[in-house]
Amino acid sequence: MKESLMQFWSDHSQTIITLGYNLLLAVAILIASSLIAKTVRKAIANTRTRLDKTLIPLFSTIASYAVYVIGGVFILDIFGVNTASLIALVGAAGLAIGLALKDTLSNIAAGIMLLIVRPFRADDFIEFGGTQGTVREINLFTTILETTDGLYIASPNNMLWGNNIKNFTRNGKRRMDIIVGISYSDSINEGFAVLKKIAESESRLLAEPAPQVMVASMIDSAVNIQLRVWAKNEDYWSAYWDLNKRVKEAIEVAGLTIPFPQRTLHIVGEQNAQAIQKNARKD
């Protein structure tokens, strides 16, 4: 047995040494690729440039994958693999995998298109398909949102790309409509004067576009008058909540009535009912 091993070593020692050297070199390349990929991801994540926050996760992922691919090519070259033939094989395999994972690839394509067209950026508040949230991240497959009540939403990129996207942040300002009902017996002009005075005294509202007051609708029990004003995004909700409170209080102070829904009932007596039935028979 010992002589057989010695003979095997004598015949194949050079091959074994070369193979062991190549294996050690391959392991070293894998370790180096892993370290370089992590370093590249951290460097991109910590970069202080004008690069949008939504692009950083995607670029860091692509860069790390590229490092691993380059390391894999070096390893294949060490073992003498014909990379040209391998590329053709990978291409054929990639076609089959692409057909099997068409939905996943569509998410990647949609993510790329979202980053090119840029309908939203990091920290924008958006709505699509009934979902609302603040954009935190766009990666290769999903877009990460945070809802107003702190929930985490990971939505496939093709869901966003295939829907209308409403961006509440992009224009920097938003319009708010404050509607209050007054009685039909009240003066509409007095109601307008109350709303205009409130708009003029609120510093968080924009001068342009100018505030507007109008009759929004006339319903069964009230005339709905509306205050239409604009505010910056950061002031929108605080101003909206405060204005609703102030409008209610100011309407009451001005002596105007905010009516409740009401219905008038006409009670018909027995004699009248008989007369109505008699007339109905004649007809």
UniProtKB/TrEMBL annotation:
State the compartments where it is located: Cell inner membrane; Cell membrane
List each copy of the Mechanosensitive ion channel MscS C-terminal domain by range.
178-256
Tell me the protein family, please: Belongs to the MscS (TC 1.A.23) family.
Taxonomic lineage of this organism? Bacteria, Pseudomonadati, Pseudomonadota, Gammaproteobacteria, Alteromonadales
State the protein's name: Small-conductance mechanosensitive channel
**What's this protein's function?**
Mechanosensitive channel that participates in the regulation of osmotic pressure changes within the cell, opening in response to stretch forces in the membrane lipid bilayer, without the need for other proteins. Contributes to normal resistance to hypoosmotic shock. Forms an ion channel of 1.0 nanosiemens conductance with a slight preference for anions.
Can you give the residue ranges of the Mechanosensitive ion channel MscS domain? 103-170
Q: How does it assemble?
A: Homoheptamer.
Which SUPFAM superfamilies does the annotation name? Answer: Mechanosensitive channel protein MscS (YggB), C-terminal domain, Mechanosensitive channel protein MscS (YggB), transmembrane region, Sm-like ribonucleoproteins
InterPro entries in alphabetical order: LSM_dom_sf, MS_channel_1st, MS_channel_C, MscS_archaea/bacteria_type, MscS_beta-dom_sf, MscS_channel_2nd, MscS_channel_C_sf, MscS_channel_TM-2
Q: Which residues cross the membrane?
A: 16-37, 58-76, 82-101
Q: Does the keyword Membrane apply?
A: yes
- Leader sequence residues: none
The entry's keywords:
Cell inner membrane, Cell membrane, Ion channel, Ion transport, Membrane, Transmembrane, Transmembrane helix, Transport
Membrane topology summary: Multi-pass membrane protein
Location of the Mechanosensitive ion channel transmembrane helices 2/3 domain: 61-102
